[in-house]
Specification:
This is NADH-quinone oxidoreductase subunit E. Keywords: 2Fe-2S, Iron, Iron-sulfur, Metal-binding. Helix content is 43%, strand content 10%. The protein is of the alpha+beta class. The protein has 2 domains: 73 residues, Arc Repressor Mutant, subunit A (Orthogonal Bundle), CATH 1.10.10; 83 residues, Glutaredoxin (3-Layer(aba) Sandwich). Strand 3 and strand 4 form a beta hairpin. Helix 1 packs antiparallel against helix 2, helix 2 packs antiparallel against helix 3 and helix 3 crosses helix 4. The longest helix has 14 residues. The N terminus is likely disordered. Bound molecules: FE2/S2 (inorganic) cluster. The site of FE2/S2 (inorganic) cluster has 12 residues, from helix 5.
């Protein structure tokens, strides 16, 4: 059984609600393995702030009694963690080799050209971030992309990319 959660340090920009969720994640593991909750805590921070800031990483490191560099390694290893603020719709276009051979790079370039941004960039209205990503496990469906780390869309040739952008704009809040 782990010790009282209130004894874990609260620092940085995250809300009490985020820390309450951290505590629930930490409670899933033995007291000496609370670092196992790091991925969940990073996801909670990102849900609250839209990205994982250096301040959030430091707060999570303190909370889980981890070296800040160890938290940083997790943030930078996984594509789903945003290392800078992103738009309302994050479009991760696969540009690994199998997709490259089937217009993955062309899809990335088409989106960037249409939205007037560079790969990795965000539109000035804050709606779209477009970035290349690693294999999404759907190579046969290329070009493929992932919307907001959750929704995979396949066979994204230029007309379908245009439709996707229009659909997402209509959904924008
Ligand atoms: S290489 Fe693009 S989904 Fe696998």
């Amino acid at each position: 059984m782990s010790g009282p959660m209130s004894s874990l340090p609260k620092t940085g920009p995250l809300s009490d609600a985020a820390y309450a969720r951290f505590a629930r994640e930490v409670a899933k593991y033995p007291a000496d393995q609370k670092q196992s909750a790091v991925m969940a805590c990073l996801s909670i921070a990102q849900q609250e702030q839209g990205w994982v800031s250096p301040e959030s990483e430091a707060a999570i490191a303190a909370y889980l009694d981890m070296a800040p560099i160890a938290v940083r390694e997790v943030t930078t290893f996984y594509n789903m963690y945003n290392q800078q603020p992103v738009g309302q719709f994050k479009l991760n276009v696969c540009t690994n080799l199998p997709c490259q051979l089937r217009n993955g790079q062309a899809a990335l370039e088409h989106l960037c050209q249409k939205l007037g941004i560079e790969p990795g960039g965000t539109t000035p209205d804050g709606l779209f971030t477009v970035q290349p990503c690693e294999c999404l496990g759907a190579c046969a469906d290329a070009p493929v992309l992932l919307v907001n780390d959750r929704q995979m869309v396949s066979f994204m040739h230029n007309d379908r990319l245009d439709d996707l952008v229009d659909t997402l704009k209509a959904q924008a809040q």
